[in-house]
């Protein structure tokens, strides 16, 4: 299994996703600021993986804190992580988990031992990691029944082991179908501008021996119209209470195209991706990244000097375009609002 992130004797080790697919390199974070930098510069990405990284980063920061300032340091570190990526709700979910564990430890005794707090936070971060892998495998079990032998599946961005603690969400469902022996083929959207599909999903599919072909984002509609695509499977960075889904920019276009061509459109995400405080997708914050990601390719300018670019990292797909949401607790269909509430 691909080792996206791990805790190693008081350090956080993660695969550097910026160098894939050409170089498999791992970096070691020795302080929490290194983890923050890794999240910001896309060394690690994907909503569940970012949540795990934040949890481990908080544990790492507290591990290096002095006893006298541990409470002050903890909340300052949590605040620093909360400013990294605004759209992926798993980040904030993981921070809240770490806060709950910290406050429980603080309240457990009038003379709280600093070593006990540090141990507890490390345990919580590792638990979040392990829970994510188990959830991914359960999503695979639930979702694989939606894939038929001989299907061609279109996927967008990377929702695989690299985007999670391991195994993957959307790619986890694909993996599970492949492991069951179903003959499937995956069409991988390149996913501009950072090419997570071309660089990361293709790398995972090749490593797993799952038949796959890379296409440009603009080819998807044509393949659907020609009857080549049987279903679309994507991940999610935040799901609103009504079932609207925020995912990598370009997802909305695929959902509209899938509806036009009568193709099922499935979203795969853990319960931690659901944000019931956001009533609809209109309330989900959308991260705007640097224009250079659009204007340049591997530091080579591809647009005229001084030209401007928009670069929203995500878009929102309204629930009416979604066939089902696959979670570790089961498959959710319409009416999404009621069934999401029942699920949680």
Question: Can you tell me about this structure?
Answer:
By secondary structure, the protein is of the alpha/beta class. It folds into 2 domains: 133 residues, translation initiation factor eif-2b, domain 1 (Four Helix Bundle (Hemerythrin (Met), subunit A), Up-down Bundle); 198 residues, 3-Layer(aba) Sandwich (Rossmann fold), CATH 3.40.50.10470. It contains 11 helices and 16 strands. The strands form 4 sheets. The chain has a 7-stranded mixed beta sheet, with helices on both faces. Strand 15 and strand 16 form a beta hairpin. Helix 2 packs parallel to helix 4 and helix 4 packs antiparallel against helix 5. The longest helix is centred in the middle third of the chain and has 30 residues. It is globular and about 65 Å long. The model has no long low-confidence stretch (mean pLDDT 96).
Topology:
Elements: E1 5-7, E2 12-15, E3 26-29, H1 32-40, H2 47-63, H3 70-82, H4 89-107, H5 114-143, E4 152-155, H6 170-179, E5 185-189, H7 196-208, E6 212-215, H8 220-225, E7 231-234, E8 238-240, E9 245-248, H9 251-260, E10 265-268, E11 274-275, H10 292-295, E12 296-297, E13 300-301, E14 314-317, E15 324-327, E16 330-332, H11 336-343
Parallel strand pairs: 4-5, 4-7, 5-6, 7-10, 8-11, 10-15
Antiparallel strand pairs: 1-2, 2-3, 8-9, 9-14, 12-13, 15-16
CATH H level of the largest domain: which superfamily? Translation initiation factor eif-2b, domain 2
Report strand order across the widest sheet: 6-5-4-7-10-15-16
Helical residue percent band? 40-55%
Please provide the ordered H/E string of secondary-structure elements: EEEHHHHHEHEHEHEEEHEEHEEEEEH
How is the quaternary structure best described?
single chain
State the major sheet.
Answer: 7 strands, mixed
Portion of residues in beta strands equals: 15-25%
* CATH class category label of the largest domain: Alpha Beta
Mean pLDDT, rounded to whole units? 96
């Amino acid at each position: 299994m691909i080792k996206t992130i791990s805790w190693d004797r008081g350090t956080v080790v993660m695969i550097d996703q910026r160098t894939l697919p050409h170089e498999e390199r791992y970096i070691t974070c020795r302080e929490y600021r290194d983890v923050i930098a890794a999240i910001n510069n896309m060394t690690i990405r994907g909503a569940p993986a970012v949540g795990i990284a934040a949890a481990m980063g908080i544990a790492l920061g507290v591990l290096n804190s002095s006893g006298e300032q541990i409470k002050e340091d903890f909340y300052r570190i949590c605040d620093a992580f909360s400013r990294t990526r605004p759209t992926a709700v798993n980040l904030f979910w993981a921070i809240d988990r770490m806060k709950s564990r910290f406050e429980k430890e603080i309240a457990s005794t009038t003379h709280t031992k600093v070593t006990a707090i540090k141990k507890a936070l490390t345990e919580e971060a590792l638990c979040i990691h392990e829970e994510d892998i188990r959830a991914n495998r359960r999503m695979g079990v639930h979702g694989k029944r939606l894939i038929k032998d001989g299907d061609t599946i279109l996927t967008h961005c990377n929702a695989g082991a690299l985007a999670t603690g391991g195994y993957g969400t959307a790619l986890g469902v694909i993996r599970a179908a492949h492991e069951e022996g179903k003959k499937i083929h995956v069409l991988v959207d390149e996913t501009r501008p950072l090419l997570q599909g071309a660089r990361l999903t293709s790398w995972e599919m090749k490593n797993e021996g799952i038949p796959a072909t890379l296409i440009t984002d603009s080819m998807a509609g044509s393949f659907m119209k020609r009857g080549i695509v049987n279903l679309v499977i994507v991940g999610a960075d935040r799901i609103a209470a009504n079932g609207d889904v925020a995912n990598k920019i370009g997802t909305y276009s695929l959902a509209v195209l899938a509806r036009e061509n009568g193709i099922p459109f499935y979203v795969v995400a853990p319960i931690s991706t659901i944000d019931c405080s956001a009533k609809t997708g209109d309330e989900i914050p959308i991260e705007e990244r640097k224009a250079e990601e659009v204007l340049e390719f591997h530091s080579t300018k591809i647009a005229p000097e001084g030209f401007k670019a928009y670069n929203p990292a995500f878009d929102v797909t309204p629930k009416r375009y979604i066939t089902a949401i696959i979670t570790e607790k089961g498959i959710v269909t319409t009416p999404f609002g009621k069934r999401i509430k029942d699920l949680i």
